[in-house]
Write a structure and sequence with these properties.
Length: 1218
């Protein structure tokens, strides 16, 4: 999702100037690019929801719920963040909405409700004119992990404009961080010097490249100096309980950890904090810094091991949330203002947030007596060592939370993470009596599930509809893991045992560990939002534990909680902050998730491919199974298909032993016809019922097919198309295959000769040919297609394979010259009718006698003007993206984009890369429009279009692809030009990749779908789907300047011919007449000269006096008289229309290149002089230069390059020089 660039201040990294993984370094801070998929808009009853796959959405009461991404940006050591800004160099898309964006609701909890009826859209946002949020990136907080500062930035790819009912979306957001490097010091941990911690930082951040090259990686490994002890695992308990924890310490030592037990008494006597919790945290920080401690077990409940309470505010404010986060996140004091409230949003150093990134993994054992401690230790060791009887079983218990809100719906969100588990449900939604009971919960808990999750009401001594006293009835043989979002069930500061303590330490049964709330839990107050707030933390935990290979349960808990950091509030109601503090881990911090003792070495499926009858690519695969438990297990293996054999099929394995299972194709596999076959390989632990299911695939192909799936042939009298059919294997055998033709758009008997027959392959023959005659005609038509189909392959191991159909395209050869246009004389006068004739032609030049229609007539200047859309150097998928079945792109081009007025006869689109997907009903339409951009004007246009081209097309290559318009468009050069591209395929294929210009305004409306909204040509103002973008497809316009002429329409043709009169109403020395039947056929006359009959007529045309008073006047101030402009053929009323030198260049060889404005057909001389003092003497250097365009370039040899030389252009006329 991310493409990164980063800039490091040179004061921090003086020698770091290089490129790394698409990143760059410069002097102004850190810059990173984040790329996003297009939003998905889901309309509801009154509001719409906006989703982007890479993003999450946070709920804030009354505010629009929009997707955002949490950027994690590592800051250079010692740098401080000044400010955050954002920008985007990609085009912005405008998404029009039918409904307002959904607004956030306040969370609710047991006994404390936000009164759902009071929630409504915030009028300051929904009735305001500003976008929400106001910018694409904002700072959440600067956190610190292992001595490194990390900026958390909320990146919003979508901004909402309620006033315009639209979203502004950017596919790429650039986040800019401005840094400074002051003498900057905080009360923080030292810089990371441990490689594992270094890797943890690098894996957490988006820009690991930013770490400084002076890091000494080798020095990060633990020291072997005995004077520097290493304690991976720290147990903190009282002297009275330390003996009870000794077996756990020994168990961890056996697992390879180094362990230390520190007593509360010695800690409080050694560390002098402001209170006992501060002293305890100082000791943990010392262990982290000096002993490389990673795991910390707090071995005691309230009154045994100190605890910290923290601040929370969600409709109620408290400072008493029991919060072990304080002991895991070791930077800063957590109370910088020194009051009696800890964990406030401004309690971090320098007034920022407190540290929320854990340096150590903390768990708490809720024990207060040696018996409870021993029970906890025994259950922990038993969970870690013994085989779980139901390692792949889970129980989900959801309660009716009231007001139509169901905990079962929240637990549905866990199902994707539990896809490999057998799941039992207790769910009030489906309970026969309306609610399940505590007795039912006990029954299912006693069946020893491995994972238990609960969403329902709870209190200090009640959860799962069980009281603490009910837990004495537990009898499960294997301990489970339980997580719940109910209120206070983990509140260990309450008098008496809390539910989490009772279920983990009250008996040998129950849970090995629990994750529960020490205070209120929170959930959404509307049906469908039950999973929010506390449920999101539980959902992230199980996802991290079960789908991301995070075997350490407490580690998964910590990492999943840190995935929620982007949601943590620093003001107002703060439900996510509250949940972050209260959701607490009660258990051993090192315990790993228990899996079934039967493990399969590889889940790679057997995948075999080849030809029916053989040969096949492979035939077997070996699976290694291992017993990771402590006892002997029995196993069984089987296949679901008779073409696959598993051997051996059962057996036993002792502890720590492996064995191999072979999965092999049987002989039946080579007797199967072509097809894709799937089987399941099942390997089971017969003691626990745990089963690993792995698919096996057999893909068999036929051996007879066409060499290609498409062919092309040019229509011609002697044309044939030859199609090659090939045999891939078993060529030593006899085989045959039938073939036949089928009409698609071509018609047998008119366009091609219908054919059918049988091809025979003799032993050793690998190919055969089918030939089909093509029929010629004199009809101009679009390309036509027919199919040749193979069928009925016969012979041993003879099977058809794709492509078994070849689509033949017949390219039309008629009317490539379309019309011949003849003018009787090549010199005509302005305004005087003259004879012309036109003849419809076939490709061979014969008269097409069937043409009896009318044609439009244009007078043009015979010089095509080619103009490209400026700055079209970026790439974009539209208008050619056929990723979805149909699409439409409606763009607005300014007069400057088009280049000027004239008859547009062709458009070209520039492809960045070759692709060959077909576009059905590819249509280009043009019209004048008064609109310069979209927004507030936005809509699909339906009226006044000129359909310039409509055909089926397949673009064949990269570069400029020219499209001759069947109906040319006469553009006035004043209005904006709207160009509409559309297509309508049956299904999607692939994206396009064209060149486009990024614009400052929204000039393109586009959309694509999979045949959801009908024909794109019919989309109108009622079609609300569509994005507007600051991007303009790069188009090359081919146009001819118009000369006014009459009549506008000629015809009707008779027997393919027409003769009549035409008049040109403006002069030109290079005029042509062009006719077009508006069906894709046109023709030009030879060039003619159209001149004024007299100087007076010329003056009259331009509105000047004809009485002689204007003859020698310079009417337009260009220093040429009206008479001189008549001779030059220029406009006497336009100061820019005059004879002038446009460009003057001295070439490397000393010659001079001169470019001047000219008139086609005029003759010019170049004259030169060495001096222009006292009039100078000019002599002709180059004479009789015939102009063929509106600019002429000539090169002049310079005899004396060291001296000055002066040049002038002279127009040669019959009567005078100018």
């Amino acid at each position: 999702m991310k493409n990164f660039r980063f800039n490091i201040l040179p004061t921090l990294l003086p020698a770091l100037l290089f490129l790394l993984n698409g990143s760059f370094v410069c002097a102004d801070g850190i810059v990173l690019d984040y790329n996003f998929s297009e939003p998905q808009i889901i309309d509801g009853e009154d509001f719409c929801n906006v989703y982007i796959p890479e993003c999450r959405s946070k709920t804030e009461a009354g505010k629009p719920v929009l997707p955002f991404f949490t950027a994690r940006i590592l800051l250079p050591q010692g740098a401080r963040l000044n400010f955050v800004s954002s920008s985007s160099k990609k085009h912005e898309l405008i998404i029009n909405l039918k409904q307002p964006v959904q607004f956030g609701r306040s969370p609710i909890s047991d006994g404390i409700s936000a009164n759902p009826g009071a929630d409504s859209p915030d009028p300051t946002v929904y009735s305001g004119k500003d976008s929400y949020p106001s910018e694409n990136a904002r700072l959440i907080s600067v956190q610190r992990l292992h001595g490194r500062d990390i900026a958390l930035i909320a990146v919003y790819p979508v901004l909402y404009e309620p006033a315009n009912s639209r979203l502004r979306f950017n596919t790429q957001i650039t986040v800019n961080l401005s840094l400074e490097n002051p003498p900057y010091k905080t009360a923080s941990l030292p810089e990371v010097t441990n490689y594992d911690r270094f890797q943890e930082v690098m894996e957490f951040v988006d820009n690991p490249e930013t770490h400084e090259p002076h890091f000494n990686i080798a020095a990060m490994f633990p020291s072997e100096d005995p004077a520097s002890p290493v304690y991976d695992y720290l147990i903190i308990t009282t002297e009275a309980l330390s003996d009870a924890f000794t077996p756990l310490a020994q168990h961890k030592e056996n697992a390879g950890l180094s362990v230390k037990i520190s007593t509360v008494e010695e800690i409080l006597s050694t560390w002098q904090g402001t209170d006992s919790a501060t002293s305890l945290r100082q000791h943990i920080a010392h262990a982290y810094t000096n002993w490389n401690t990673k795991y910390v077990l707090l071995g005691g409940g309230v009154g045994t091991v100190p605890h910290r309470t923290a601040y929370g505010n969600v409709n109620v404010t408290t400072k008493n949330i029991p919060c072990d986060v304080y002991f895991a996140c070791l930077d800063g004091s957590w109370n910088s203002n020194g009051n009696d409230i800890w964990g406030e949003p401004d309690d971090g150093e320098n007034g920022g947030d407190v540290d929320l990134l854990a340096e150590v993994i903390v768990g708490r054992a809720l024990v207060n007596t040696p018996a409870e401690a021993s029970a906890f230790v025994e259950k922990t060791i038993r969970y870690e060592l013994d085989e779980h009887t139901n390692a792949e079983h889970a129980l989900l218990a959801g309660e009716d939370l009231g007001n139509g809100i169901h905990g079962g719906a929240a637990l549905d969100k866990l199902l994707p993470s539990l896809e490999n588990y057998a799941v039992n449900r207790l769910d009030d939604r489906y309970a026969p009596s309306g609610s399940w009971t505590g007795a039912e919960a006990l029954q299912l808990l006693n069946a020893s599930p491995h994972i238990v999750a609960h969403t329902g009401h709870a209190n200090v001594q009640h959860a799962l509809r069980l009281n603490n006293s009910s837990l004495s009835n537990l009898s499960n043989t294997s301990p489970f893991i339980v997580a719940g979002t109910g209120c206070h069930s983990g509140n260990f500061t309450h008098t008496g045992k809390c539910f989490a303590q009772a279920i983990t330490t009250g008996s040998p049964h129950g849970a090995a560990l629990a994750i529960m709330n020490t205070d209120l839990g929170w959930y959404g107050n509307n049906p469908g939002t039950e999973w929010m707030f506390s449920g999101e933390f539980m959902m992230r935990f199980f996802s991290r534990l079960l789908t991301k290979n995070e075997q350490g349960i407490a580690t998964a808990f910590i990492k999943s909680r840190e995935e929620m950091l982007g949601m943590i509030e620093t003001g107002g109601n703060m439900p996510y902050r509250w949940c972050f503090f209260t959701f607490t881990f009660f258990g051993d911090p090192h315990t790993a998730l228990k899996y079934d003792s039967l493990s399969v070495s590889s889940n790679t499926p057997l995948s075999v491919s080849g030809y029916a009858g053989g040969p096949l690519s492979s035939s077997s695969l070996i699976y290694t199974i291992t017993n990771s438990g402590t006892g002997t297990l029995s196993w069984a293996a089987s296949s679901s298909a008779d073409w696959l054999e598993v051997s051996p099929s059962d057996g036993t394995i002792t502890s720590g032993v492996t064995t191999n299972i072979s999965v092999t194709l049987t002989s039946l596999a080579e007797t199967l016809p072509p097809g894709k076959y799937t089987a399941a390989v099942c390997i089971s632990n017969t003691l626990t019922g745990f089963t690993t299911v792995t698919p096996a695939f057999l893909n068999l192909s036929g051996n007879i097919s066409f060499l290609t799936e498409t062919s092309e042939v040019l229509e011609d009298a002697d044309a044939i198309v030859t199609l090659e059919v090939i045999r891939h294997w078993h060529t030593n055998l006899l085989a045959s295959v039938d073939y036949s033709t089928m009409d698609i758009s071509a018609t047998a008997g008119e366009d091609y000769t219908a054919s059918s027959g049988t091809l025979h392959f003799q032993p050793g023959e690998t190919s055969a040919q089918i030939t089909i005659p093509i029929l010629d005609d004199d009809i101009s038509e679009l390309t036509e297609t027919f199919a040749v189909i193979l069928s009925n392959a016969t012979g041993t191991h003879a099977y058809l394979e794709a492509p078994a159909t070849n689509i033949v395209t017949i390219l039309d050869n008629d009317w490539h010259t379309h019309f011949s246009v003849n003018v009787a004389e090549n010199k005509q006068r302005v305004g005087e009718p003259f004879n012309i004739s036109a003849t419809a032609r076939t490709a061979t030049g014969n008269t097409y006698t069937l043409f009896e229609e009318e044609c439009v007539l244009y007078g043009l200047i015979n010089e095509p003007v080619i103009h490209d859309t400026p700055f079209a150097t970026n790439t974009w998928d539209y208008p050619l993206s056929a990723y979805k079945a149909d699409g439409r792109t409606q763009s607005i081009y300014s007069p400057d984009d088009v280049g000027g007025p004239g008859l547009i006869t062709a458009l070209s689109i520039r492809l960045r890369q070759v692709y060959k997907h077909p576009l059905s009903n590819w249509t280009i339409r043009l019209k004048h429009t008064p609109h310069a951009e979209y927004g507030p004007y936005t809509g699909w246009e339906t009226n006044d279009w000129t359909v310039a081209l409509q055909t089926n097309i397949t673009f064949q290559g990269a570069g400029w692809q020219s499209l001759d318009l069947a109906t040319p468009f006469l553009y006035n050069g004043k209005d904006h030009l709207m160009v509409d591209f559309s297509f309508n395929n049956e299904k999607g294929t692939s994206s396009g990749n064209c060149y486009a210009a990024i614009t400052e305004t929204y000039q393109t409306l586009f959309y694509s779908s999979d045949n959801v909204y009908g024909d794109p040509l019919l989309w109108n103002e009622t079609m609300t789907k569509g994005y507007i973008a600051t991007v303009l497809p790069g188009v090359r316009f081919t146009r001819y300047k118009e000369l006014p002429s009459e009549p506008p329409v000629i015809g009707t043709f008779a027997d393919g011919e027409w003769t009549g009169l035409a008049t040109v109403l403006s002069p030109s020395t290079n005029a042509v007449l062009y006719i077009n039947d508006l069906n894709g056929h046109g023709g030009f006359s030879e060039p003619i000269e159209v001149s004024w009959r007299s100087f007076a007529e010329y003056l009259e045309f331009y509105g000047l006096p004809t009485d002689g008073s204007a003859d020698n006047i310079d009417s337009d101030g260009d220093s040429f008289t009206n008479f001189e402009e008549w001779l030059a053929g220029t406009d006497p009323t336009d100061a820019t229309s005059f004879l002038s030198i446009e460009e003057f260049k001295i070439q490397s060889d000393g010659s001079t290149q001169i470019k001047w404005k000219s008139i086609p057909g005029k003759v010019y001389d170049i004259e030169s002089a060495s001096s222009i003092e006292q009039g100078g003497t000019f002599s002709t250097t180059v004479s009789n230069i015939l102009s063929r365009g509106y600019s002429t370039v000539e090169t002049v040899e310079t005899n004396s390059p060291a001296n000055s030389q002066f040049y002038r252009i002279r127009l040669r006329t019959e009567n005078s020089d100018l």
